[in-house]
Amino acid sequence: MKAMTKLIPLIAVFAALAMFSQGCKKEESKTMTEAPAAKAALSATEIVLGAVFPMTGPIATYGQESVNGMKMALKKIGDIKGKKIRLIVEDNKGEPNESANAVRKLIDIDKVHAIVGSVASSNTLAGAPIAQQSKVPLMTPASTNETVTQTGDYISRTCFTDAFQGVVMAKFAYETLGKKKAVIIVDNSSDYSKGLASVFTKKFKELGGTIVDGSFTYVQKDTDFRSLLRKVKREGPDVIWLPGYYTEVGLMLNQARQMGINLPFLGGDGWDSPKLQELAGAEGIKGNYISSHFSPDDVDPAVQGFVKEYVDTYGQKPGAMAALGYDGVLVMADALKRAPTMDHAGIRDALNSTKDFIGITGSITIDENRNARKAAVVLETTAKGMKFKQKVNP
Ligand code: PHE
Fold first, then answer.
1. Bridge-partner residues for 386, per DSSP?
2. Angle at 296 between CA 294 and CA 298, to 5 degrees
3. d(CA 193, CA 222)
4. Distance (Å, rounded) from C-alpha 346 to C-alpha 336?
5. Closest listed residue to residue 320, CA positions, set 282, 274, 384
6. What is the dihedral of CA 216, 222, 227, 233, to 10 degrees?
7. Does 19 have pLDDT greater than 80?
8. What average pLDDT is seen over the chain?
């Protein structure tokens, strides 16, 4: 009986695999006999834009804010070359395998012109190879891990990378705060966290700081960090580098203050969420610093105009992801307008040659490695929200 119940799903999997490989074979023979420009049979009457974002799950505010920003941008963009843009949003639930499935679906079923997303680097890394193999442009407005754009020429980003963000925060810790001994807490389920841990380690040591030896790790969806924090406390650091996402970070800050750990915790853009404060609590939120892409306090009139319109529309101040999603779609629209041909290769070429595009998150130029060189901001997390500290140019 037990063997039988195990067998049924197995049979289903094999059947699905057989069908899938049939589909692939058909695709292969098609691409072999047809010219590459004809491969996708893109709509000639509309522009189909796919989006892969976490709308539910532990990093849902990233997706919600992005889509808010993207929709605001779409309202500003009229027709492009006489065609309307149709946005299809797929919820990846913050999971790599869901991200890969979403990219597949957008390419195979929806026949998208291009894809925007995702946010968490591990999610984008799961979808990017599929877009690259299918030669469909995928542009992430937010994934900062170095390796994302190394996937290939169809993959680009409109944000800075962790090689920059990690250095900004190592310098902030050592030079601005005068800290000398850091413990690094890593989310082992995140390429983003692991990458930022190593960038920070290298720079902080180079500056003269000490990184406490040992492994201080957790994974996404953990909720009790007390034994980890006890271990951290025993080491007596003067600063903690915590490159994580807001749900785990918020809970950890809350528990840390309850345990009498009143040191500054430092993080990256992954903390930037309207939910952070609620999870961290009034004590947990105080006195920590992050690097991010944008500050709603920026006096630049364009930024203030964006903030006002966002607040009027959604009743909440925009976080970094709202601004990144907004800019991402505007950059995409700009590329679509400039594209020499409205096929995937033409859109890729236009995206990859984006130059001096003035966005809310700064001036965006896609460099030869398909990354954007942009300023970062350092923000202090306070009970009254994120407070602007400094802007750091690349
Ligand atoms: N940079 C993060 C990553 O690569 C994602 C992120 C961007 C989260 C901006 C919040 C705000 O995983």
1. 381
2. 80
3. 15
4. 9
5. 274
6. 50
7. no
8. 92
269 CA distance to ligand 1 centroid (A)? Answer: 5
Dist. CA 81 → ligand 1 center (Å): 32
At a CB cut-off of 8 Å and minimum separation 6, what does 362 contact?
Answer: 293, 294, 374, 375
- Tally of CB atoms within 10 A around 122: 22
Instruction: Please give the helix or strand (H or E) that residue 283 lies within, else none.
Output: helix 276-284
Q: What phi and psi, each to the nearest 5 degrees, are found at residue 46?
A: -145, 165
At position 353, the amino acid (one-letter code) is S
- Every domain of the chain and the residues it spans: 46-160+299-375, 163-292
Residue 270: name the closest of 121, 370, 135 by CA.
121
Place of tokens 């319109």: 309
pLDDT at 41: 79
Predicted model pTM: 0.90
User: One fold for both 46-160+299-375 and 163-292?
Assistant: yes
Tell me if residue 202 falls in helix, strand or coil: helix
Class of the CATH-defined domain 163-292: alpha beta
Identify the residues whose C-beta falls under 6 Å from ligand 1.
62, 119-121, 142-145, 192, 269-270, 272, 320-321, 324
Taking CA atoms, 87 is separated from 45, 49, 116, 243, in Å, by: 14, 5, 10, 31
> What element of type H or E holds 258?
helix 246-258
pLDDT of 27 > 90? The answer is no
Query: From the alpha carbon of 271, which atom of ligand 1 is closest?
Result: 10
Give how far the C-alpha of residue 390 lies from the chain's centroid of Cα atoms, to the nearest Å.
Answer: 22
Q: How far is CA 145 from the centre of its chain?
A: 9
- Residue to mutate (ligand 1; options 67, 116, 143, 193; most atoms within 8 A of CB): 143
Predicted confidence band at 40 (pLDDT cuts at 50, 70, 90)? low
CB 92 within 8 A of CB 99: yes
Centroid of ligand 1 to alpha carbon of 227 (angstroms): 27
Quote the ligand 1 centre to 68 CA distance (angstroms): 16
Residue whose entry in the numeric block shows the structure tokens 């406490």: 212
CATH topology of domain 46-160+299-375: Rossmann fold (3.40.50)
